[in-house]
Amino acid sequence: MVGTVGVHLFFLWNIREQIGQGAPDFTSYFTAGIVLRTGDGVHLYDFRTQEKVQAHFVAKTELRRGPLAYIHPPFEALLFVPLSLLPYREAFLGWSLVNLGLLLLVACLLRGSIAVCRGVNTWLLTFAFCAFFPVLANFHQGQDAILLLVVVCLAFRALKRESLFAAGCLLGLGMFKFHIILPLALTLGVWHGFRFAAGFLATTCGEGLVSLLLVGWKGALEYPSFAWRVVSAPALGGVPFHRLPNLLGLVGGWSVYEVEWEVKAAVLVGSVGLLIATIWLRPLVRNQSAYNLGFGGAVIVAALVGYSSNTYDLCLLILPLAIVADHLFSRAGEGRRANLGLYVPALLLCISPLWFFLWMKWEHLNLVGALLLWWFVAIRREVGVLGANRNDFVPSSVG
User: Does residue 396 lie in a domain region?
Assistant: First the structure.
């Protein structure tokens, strides 16, 4: 673990010049903060406005032909308004320190929610997170995926306490990455019913109102087409399919050309099938062990079916990793043969050099999608076995 974190730090040190030139994704967040701070929110989703702002702090290199577009909802840009008061390098460092603090918060939340984590020191657990490659990718790009992990962990903790409305409200805070949160919210909404859905909708409506106040009707109407245009075109900042560790990347990431509509249709059908398979776990998650594993499976599926789920978004896998580890340790003395699919994909995902190989050498991070698919199938099978055991505590919030 120490060696892996050392490699990660060495990698970040070697790209420090690129970071200073404005290459990371943080550039888009910093730009959005400046646009809102200067009162030009109505033009937040305008290429010329973003390019004009970035011209003041992004070096003219061959790294990028145009502006790195901000494509998240307007309300998230408020988080970066205070950072926009700093020079770019200091703002990037400040956001990195915030992410370190968020990782520490995740460690505290997991120690309070998952038994196996309670035996590990908070700082050691945080250090372990830093050895996970998606966490490195988050620091590399100055991304916001660790914040999303905090939101999901808070919602998970609230659900374990059967605070359904609060859990829905908390999960709604993650709508800055709606392509991942919406599939997860759909599953949990079916599992838990009206109170959870009401909380989620309340937060989402509040965020929508804040966004409308920030950018006006003009900016709000421009946002969907602007975001879709960017994520669909690598030249504008969209990620090539072979670098997407999700179902779209796994199916469509083998062509050097534009993915045909037939492939996208197949991915859509597969995504719907995965969501249905997750929702159908509802009758089985009737005891605490089955529920925890089912929640972990729902998180994995949300990352799989998210249209533009990227490597840094897989920070979310920290929660399923902890849940599966807890399950394996708690069942170790039962004499039942462990399901290989529960821990083999998990172990492979924890090998940082494998990620480096798939990213830099082979350039096929989309193969991570195969590991996630295998892992979910194994988890679903285990939930089926646990669901037949009604001796555990049955959460009143499910079923």
Answer: no
